[in-house]
Amino acid sequence: MKVYVGIDKVWFAIACSDNTKQVNWLIAEGLRRCKTYLPKKYLTESEVYLTSSDGLIVYDNDDNVQDVLRDEQFVLVASINDKTDIATPTLPAYTIENLSPNGMKDKDVVVLDGKTLTTEVLYKLSTDKYKIEISGCALKKVKASRDVIEEILQEKRVVYGINTGFGSFARTPIDENQLEELQRNLITSHACGVGDPLPPARVRMMLAVRINILCKGYSGISQKNLQIMVDAYNKSCLPYVPEKGTVGASGDLAPLAHIALGLTGEGRMWSPESGWSDASLVLASHDIEPLVLLPKEGLALINGTQFISSIGSEAVERANLIALQADVVAALTVEVLRGTATAFDERIHIARPHKGQNQVAKRLRTLLQYKGKRSEITESHKTCNRVQDSYTLRCCPQVHGITHDTIQFVRDILDVELNSATDNPMIMTDQREALSGGNFHGEYPAKALDYLAIGIHEIASISERRIERLCNHSLSDLPAFLVKNGGLNSGFMIAHVTAASLVSENKGLCHPSSIDSLSTSAAQEDHVSMGGWAARKALRVVEHVEHVVAIELLCACQALDFHRPLRSTDALEQVYKVLRKRVPYYDKDRIMNVDIESATKLLRDGKIWNAVAHYLE
Question: What is the pTM of this model?
Answer without folding.
Answer: 0.87
